[in-house]
Amino acid sequence: MGFSVALSFQNLAYCFIGVTLGTAIGVLPGIGPLATISMLLPITFYLDPTPAIIMLAGVYYGSEYGGSTASILLNLPGGASSAVTCLDGYPMSKQGRAGVALSITAIASFIGGSLGIVVLIALSPAIVAVAFAFGAAEYFAAMVFALIALSLMTGGSPLKSLAMVGVGLLLGLVGTDVISGANRYMYGIPELSDGINVAAVTMGLFGITEVIASIRNADTGGAKQKIPLRAMIPTRDDIKRSVWPTLRGFGVGSAIGPLPGLGATVASFMSYALEKRVAKDPSRFGKGAIEGVAGPESANNAAAQTAFIPVLTMGIPATASTAVMLSALMMQGINPGPRLMTEHADLFWGVIASFWVGNVMLLILNLPMIGLWVRLLSIPYRLLYPVILVLICVGAYSVKFQLLDVWLVLGIGALGYAMRLLDFEPTPMLIGFILGPMLEENFRRAMLSAFGDPMEILMRPISGTLLVLSAIMLLLTFWTAIKQPAVKPPVLREE
Amino acid sequence: MRIANKDFIGGVSVAVIGLVFLAGAMKMRIGDAIEMGPGYFPMLASGFVVVLGIVIAGMGLIRAGVRMDRPEWRPVLASLGSILAFGVLLEQIGLLPAIAIGIVVGAMGDPDSRTRQTWILAIATALLGWLIFRVALGLQMPGFRLPSFLE
Lengths: 495, 151
Description:
Largest sheet of chain A: 2 strands, antiparallel
Order of helices and strands of chain B: HHHHH
Distance between the termini of chain A: 53 Å
Strand order of the largest sheet of chain A: 1-2
Order of helices and strands of chain A: HHHHHHHHEEHHHHHHHHHHHHH
Number of strands of chain B: 0
Structural class of chain A: mainly alpha
Oligomer: heterodimer
Strand content of chain B: under 5%
Shape of chain A: globular
Helix content of chain B: 55-70%
Structural class of chain B: mainly alpha
Distance between the termini of chain B: 60 Å
Number of domains of chain A: 1
């Protein structure tokens, strides 16, 4: 059923546009998947829900793939999840084996992604069945759990990440309170009544911040290699070496993908560590071992797909990219949650089928189009970033044709850069911002039906367990923060 | 003890953001736990943020924290200036000049930018942008417009 939706001409076309644009922008160094998605987010507001989400998903995995291309050819990862690919992909490139590295990347990504989709299809109905039993109290507890787990695992200081979740929640409050109709934090600006625009927040936090940080550091123009198609054919030995890493990468990726805060980046790092550990000769790693490319690439694509499980089944995103897609769905008037699978079955299965179609497109497209990406990589960054800045502005303005959104991009971009200087992670803030309104609504409904007694919520088995687990994690966070050695060893991060 | 460390500055900033929102929440109807007013959840959330900010700042004081990196002013100011220029010009004199000037300002962020190249880039992008957004997609943006004081 899903394929009839995914294979309609219109959806195929949007999937193709998404994958191509995503790869093209993702290839550029300093612009990761999130910045890419946020730049292209406004376009999808003009589409119907199904093509919109199909195109965004295409952008997402296209940019993941494009990031690996930059890693292999330039040693400059397009995004964090392809950073690991630099370790062995770039040495392969220096040995003249860039073509093989690229084709193994494409194949491993395809296998990891496809198997990840199988996991997504297999697990979703079971989780939906559980989620149907969820009331407001359970949703509230599940969101609290996800937000706290996210801050613990997202990297960096957990306390600071938790603070960012809080700031995100606060930004999410701006606008009209849906329950009472009261205006909150609008300071007399009527355009704010629908809340702060998600596109402006993501573009500011990820797009602008990444551009500023890359101006001095991303030096493109190094890729002068020509890669003929024949150089891309892997040898029998390459294939033999890649089979198991690809499958192990899929295992790692699909286990990690659905967990809050981990996602593709952690999956790729863990897969690399695993490959190095099981290898007969670990010293080959870092010098162009094909296993170090196949494993992580399979892992990050499997994780990218399975990260959709909590979003599509419960409406709770685990990673920043899926959070943006969740908000795109909501802006289309669709409330993700267990009902999505029954009430919007064509959308649900159509989107999943299109994930796979997109993976096929990536595989077929990218092998012949590599030359184009290489040429794109040879454009110096100083000619690229001013265009990116202006595109972000046009994109922000075009959502509702109001200048306010341009000013929001400006303010949030400045905030994002300050956060970067001070070592605060942007991802928890974005997820807090997107989940905030849902968290509040479920909290209020749960407390209403519990007659204002929090114990009532704690006594329900599912919500109680989740909240107790959250409390334990919270205590652990504070405890480890206090227990850290009083004087840190001489600073590592003071570049 | 170093005041200018990442944790102290960051913690204080977070606490200030929390306080601003807390002050806002106090002006709304709070209600009670059964039937919460619009201010109830904001009050809890901003209280949580204030506490976290204080804890982070406190930790920064107790420990010899990591010194803050100096901002790279040139890229920062040029990038933000580019957005500012675009925003100011768009509704005043139209999409084409806003794109072009946005790019020229943005390009100042990299000392290696060359004037002639930058202007070619600016004009080319403005024309392309006008074709894509205005002509092809038909977005409601004036391509060119006389500034209001000249009309």
